[in-house]
Structures are given as C-alpha cells and as structure tokens.
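Q: What does the assembled structure look like for these inputs?
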Amino acid sequence: MDKALIYIVEDDEGIQELYESAFEDVYDIRIFGDGESFFKAFEEKRPSLAIIDIMLPDIDGYTILTRLREKDEVLPVIIVSAKSDEMSFVKGLNKGADDYVSKPFSVMELIARVKAGLRRANLYVRRHNEFTVNEKLYDIAFRGQKLGLTIKEFKLLKLLIERSGETLTREEIFKAVWGDDFMGETRALDMHIAQIRDKIRAAGGENPIVTVRGVGYRVD
Amino acid sequence: MDKALIYIVEDDEGIQELYESAFEDVYDIRIFGDGESFFKAFEEKRPSLAIIDIMLPDIDGYTILTRLREKDEVLPVIIVSAKSDEMSFVKGLNKGADDYVSKPFSVMELIARVKAGLRRANLYVRRHNEFTVNEKLYDIAFRGQKLGLTIKEFKLLKLLIERSGETLTREEIFKAVWGDDFMGETRALDMHIAQIRDKIRAAGGENPIVTVRGVGYRVD
DNA sequence: AAGTTGCTGACAGAAAACTTACAATATGAT
DNA sequence: ATCATATTGTAAGTTTTCTGTCAGCAACTT
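A:
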C-alpha cells in the first residue's frame, strides 16, 4: 500500500512546517500557498484527502472548496479555520467539507481526523497504482476501465493487488481464495490468472501479473 | 434534487443575517418581516419548511401559526422564541408547531432541526434517480409510473434503491427484508426480483436490477 | 368462494469453475 | 548454445453451481 497523498492549502509558513513535521513519513504531502497551484496539481494527480485553510490571503477557502466539489464530490476535505466560532463550522460543513478543525489545533487531533477521513473514503473504493478495487461492485477497474470480473477472479486479483510487490505462493493463494479445502494439483489457478490477464488486455493494459516460476504470482 | 425552499418570519435584522449566513447555499430561503408578506408568498409558492419567530411587533407568531395550519396541516414549522420557558414551548406545540427553538439558539442546533423537519416532511416520499418511494402508499413509482408493488416487493426494491450502487448479498437482503429467520436455500428472493422486473418493464423501463452472480443483486 | 400474496420444489438454462490434455516456456545441466 | 525437464499457459470439454421461471399450494383478504 502506497502512502496516501494529501494536498494542503495553507499560506502560513509556520503552519506549513507544522504540517510537514506532523505528517512526515506517514503520508505524502504537498503544500500549496494558493488555490491556483492546488487546482493545477489536482488536475495532474488526485490526492486521497485535502486540507484547506479558509483564511487565505488571496482567495477564500470556501471558494476553493466549492470549486473542488464541482470536480470531485467524494474527496474527503478537512477545513481548517482560525475562527473557532460556530458560524464558520456550519458554513464549512454546508459547503461540503467532511470535517472541521479550528486553529490552534493539536497535531494529534488533526492526524486522527485525517485518518478518519481516509477511512471513510476507503470504505468501498481503494486505489492501488493502476487498479481501483470496488468492494461494493465486486469488480476492479484498470485505468478506470471496469474489468467485469467473476467473484473468483475478483477475490484473486484483489489479493494480488492488495499485497502487490509480494510474491504469493500457489498455496497461499489457494488458501486465501479457495479456503483450506484446496485439492493438490490443478490448473484452476492458472486458468483464472489467464482469464484476468485477458480481461486486463481487453481493457487496453499490459499484463501486470508476473509469474514467478516455481513459486507463484505477483503484481508489482 | 432542488434546494429546499424555506420561509422565515423574523423582524430582527441581526437575526435575519444570521439565517442568511447559516443557510446560504444549502437552502433557498426567503425572509419576511411580517405575517402578511409571508402569507402572500405562501399563496404563490408553498415552501418545504417554515421558521416563525413568535415575538413579532405587529402580530403574534402563534396567530400566524394557527392561520397557517388552516391552510396546510402538514408543513413542518419550527417556532423560534426568546422566551425559553416551558409555557411557550407547550403552546407552540399545541398550536401545531413541529419543533421549537429558543433564543439565543445555536446555529448548529437550528440546522439540525431544519434537517430533521425536512426529513420528517420527506418521510413519505423520497426520490432516488428514476424511482419515487412512497412509504405511505407502500409503493414505488418508476419515472412517475406507479408500479403497484406488494409489501415484500416494496421492501425489497426499497432496500435496493436506498443502497443503490451497492451490491447486496442474498443474505443481507434476506436479513433486511425477511428478518433474521430466513431459512436457507429458497427461490423466494429470485421470485420477487422477477416480479419487480416485470412490473418495471410493464411501466416501460429497462431492467434496473443487476444480478451479481454468486453474490446478490444491485440497482445502479 | 375467489382473488392476492408469498412461498416451495422442480426443472431448465446459463454462467462459472474446474479438468484434462497438450503446447509453450523457462531453467539448469551438458 | 542445446537439450532435458519441470513448470506454466491455454484451448476444449465437462461438471458444478447458481439463477430464472413455472406450476402449485397454503395463508390471508375481501
């Protein structure tokens, strides 16, 4: 699992440093001093979560939030405000923020809220590199293209993706996907691997499943 | 879904501003300084909810409420009062208010109550995509066409609609629709699904219920 | 009694999973 | 390099599993 990417819109350099030290090593963070650079980066790569300070010099944080919500309705957004009054809290939530933290905030608190936000977002849909695993649809997409997997294929590919980088032995795979009752030698696993590879190719991708001869399979 | 329209009767300008900032962008609001303009607007367009301050200069809020109830028995009404005593609370509810908030009120609280009021109003009829679920009639319409569902069919389709996009397993569905006491394998679920599909087709729609083999069903 | 509604069991059809057989490929020894 | 061997890939066919549908029955309503 890659580190979650978090975009932060914050102009105060002191607070920027605070974010850096707070999230260092835990999340990949990118800090933007203004809305424009944030949106530019957003177009290139969508983060897992955004933290927006509403007291910015050039632009109102609420405007950023509103504009962001036009592009992405589900991205978890945490609003940070110096105003600790109820009004901005309410306004933030109304504009589509998922959570609200007021300055001065405790780093612990912020981390907890980020975690909660990421968990909410990851509830159904998780991204791993090129893959998007949708637990509710029982399907996986490759570069946005749904693969249309059967349950076996879904379970199998999900396993490989979630433990990508790791070579899983045939036995491990059997145990995880079929349960303990797997019966010795069979080509069943290879079959399904072939099916999945076909479907990924049909979606326009190159085979991402590596065969590790004598051991099992791996997704990088 | 359009924004809900809320009429507010309030003469204090400070409080008027508070309403404006609180509900901005979330609801369409119109604020009236007196009862007459409120009723005039009411005749033209009925709101989804009304908030009435009972401490008005020219007219008693209770009178407005009483008169309103002659025209509309179900409109959710929230009474706002500076008197936080129990008497006005009871009086308000007796006159047909659905809820009661006393000044000075927390904006959060007010928003929560408005939401609750709207939810109550929407209790009977809710829209999800092409479907309109009517709790009171125990029926669901597809593109305005009533389907004429039986209770089981209603519960089943309602479940699928309310959690649309999500694949529900047969077991989940059984638990939700039949209760915990569902007995193993049976074709009952498929039967009802088939019935619902027939009825939707009869109403001129394409089958919106997706079978997820080995798992359950889903409405997109 | 007649009509609804909900359920069951039987069966058919379809989809998925698996098996078999053989081809293709990688690996290591020669 | 070449070959032998072990291992994996794949096509075709078979089996199993799952869903859809039908007919019929029981419970309930009107």
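Residues 187, 190-191, 193-194, 211, 213-214 of chain B lie near DNA strand D (CB under 10 Å from a C1').
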